Amino acid sequence: MKLENMKDLERIIGVAIEENNPLSLLIEMPGFSKPEMITNPVENLALKLEYYKKTYDEHLEHKHAKGIKITGYTF
After folding, report:
1. Fewer Cβ in 10 A, N or C end of the chain?
2. How far apart are CA 23 and CA 73, in angstroms?
3. This prediction's pTM
4. 26-46-75 Cα angle (round to 5)
């Protein structure tokens, strides 16, 4: 599923925690033809959300590494 902004990410992390599901995020990076998939266990999601909010902007673009962006998720 597609993610548009930080509010979408906050919402979907809340759903994953509520339903006790791990969450995989799709990360686009320059030079790669396909996005990378990173899976986080439900136990880590609250802390990962803090990390994402510090590291990614409102449009889910990495603040310190141009071209890296969270684009989607799956359970």
Report:
1. N
2. 7
3. 0.92
4. 40
